[in-house]
Specification:
The chain is mainly beta. It is about 10% helix and about 35% strand. The protein is built from seven helices and 22 strands.
């Protein structure tokens, strides 16, 4: 770096500028003073002038700076600084690392490949660490691959670890992401006790810190849904809150539907659990018991589903049509609807009421036929069709039977 700067100085100092002829000097040129410097003063008044030289700190120690600055006064308006440790600063006079670029506004470093627009070379930054031979070891790079149009990040293995395509899709372990984020391998999530704070329009996937872990999804309203292991395959823990409990954890509530709580006055018994061999455990000493009325719950669900089913039946023309009297709008008066204002040439203000008609509907004594609600005409069969939901009486005669309780539920232990 220093050799390049010296060569640059001499090429400028001894180049022909109209004031002196070109000179060739064999040997060294030494500028000797307290703050030696070269000033490049353009002969045209409007030209930009520069200086370069040594800026001493007056401390008498090895801590001076070599700088290039703007103007004809050395030591003012420095642009590039080289300190005693070889650190280079652009926009700063105290670089802390090998190259420090600083600005009071945006600071952008351009790395340009194929500036002539001819070729498919890459632009990027390559990282090295010192190797055992002293020549260095490449440890990774960050570059734009011009042939594929993808930004690549390589780690110490020098294989592509992260890729960003022209659509902003990010690939981890792949150079061809097909979504905003594509991961070509497994991912790990740190287990947590509960989901983070809800954010509108965003859901969360998280790992619950149970043993073994559980995978959960929380929507933007804060509703938790267990993904794995599925509660119907492997029963999760049942959280009971008390005393005076009137709520049971979301997980069992979601899959069983209705939970019936009963209080036994001062008596702890197992009667409410005997039907399904359920074991219970007191929570904070309260005496509330839980009973899972499986048959009642499941039959209620079946009935509700049947009540939503649509019955399609053919009906006669008489039952399909209804008579509707034809009406007409008749004005029965007027009403005030605000005020309007007018100003004459003398500045007088006149206030006038705005009136609107009051209308009502009156029968004409004439009638017309129309289809009843829920009735349609099938043009292919030429018949009237009525669609309706099943009635309770129709559901009652179906002899619905509840499905058998899952085996895991029969041996469920309350925790």
């Amino acid at each position: 770096m220093k050799k390049l700067i010296v060569a640059f100085i001499f090429s400028l100092v001894f180049a022909s500028n109209g004031l002196c002829d070109e000179k060739t000097i064999a040997g060294n040129v030494r500028l000797y003073s307290e703050d030696p410097a070269l000033i490049f003063d353009g002969s045209t008044a409007s030209d930009t002038d520069y200086w370069m030289g040594l800026v001493a700190d007056e401390g008498g120690d090895d801590n001076d700076l070599f700088q290039i600055g703007k103007g004809t006064t050395p030591g003012t308006t420095p642009k590039i600084t080289l300190d005693k440790d070889g650190n280079v600063g652009i926009g700063t006079v105290s670089p802390q690392v090998e190259l420090e670029v600083s600005s009071t506004g945006n600071t952008i470093l351009d790395i340009v490949a194929d500036s002539d627009g001819n070729g498919t070379n890459d632009a990027g930054i390559r990282f090295w660490s010192n190797g055992p031979t002293g020549t260095g070891t490449q440890t990774g790079d960050f570059r734009y691959d011009e042939s594929s149009g993808v930004v690549l990040v390589k780690g110490s293995g020098l294989g592509t670890d992260i890729a960003i395509d022209s659509s902003g899709n990010v690939g981890i372990g792949t150079v061809s992401p097909n979504q905003l984020l594509t991961v070509e391998n497994s991912i790990s999530l740190k287990e947590i006790a509960d989901a983070n704070a809800d954010t509108a329009a965003y859901g969360q996937i998280w790992v619950h810190n149970t043993a073994p872990n559980e995978l959960w999804f929380t929507d933007d309203a804060g509703t938790d849904t267990q993904i794995s292991p599925h509660p119907l395959d492997a029963p999760p823990s049942l959280y009971v809150y008390g005393p005076g409990i009137d709520w049971i954890g979301k997980r069992i509530q979601k899959y069983l539907g209705v939970i019936f709580w009963q209080t036994i006055d001062g008596v702890v018994t197992e009667e409410l659990f005997a039907d399904y061999n359920l074991r219970r455990k007191d929570v904070e000493g309260h005496k509330d018991k839980i009973k899972l009325d499986w048959d009642t719950v499941q039959l209620a669900k079946l009935r509700a589903a049947k009540m939503q089913e649509v019955v399609v039946e053919e009906i006669t023309t008489k039952d399909a049509l209804e008579s509707i009297e034809i009406t007409r709008d008749v004005q029965i008066g007027t009403k005030t609807d605000g005020y309007s204002y007018a100003v004459d040439k003398d500045g007088n203000i006149a206030v006038m009421e705005k009136t609107v008609p009051v209308m009502t509907k009156q029968g004409t004594g004439k009638f017309e036929k129309r289809l009843k609600n829920g009735v349609s005409f099938d043009s292919e069969t030429g018949k009237f069709i009525h669609k309706r939901q099943m009635t309770e009486d129709e559901v009652d005669v179906l002899s619905l039977k509840a499905p058998e309780m899952p085996g895991w539920m029969k041996t469920w232990a309350l925790k």
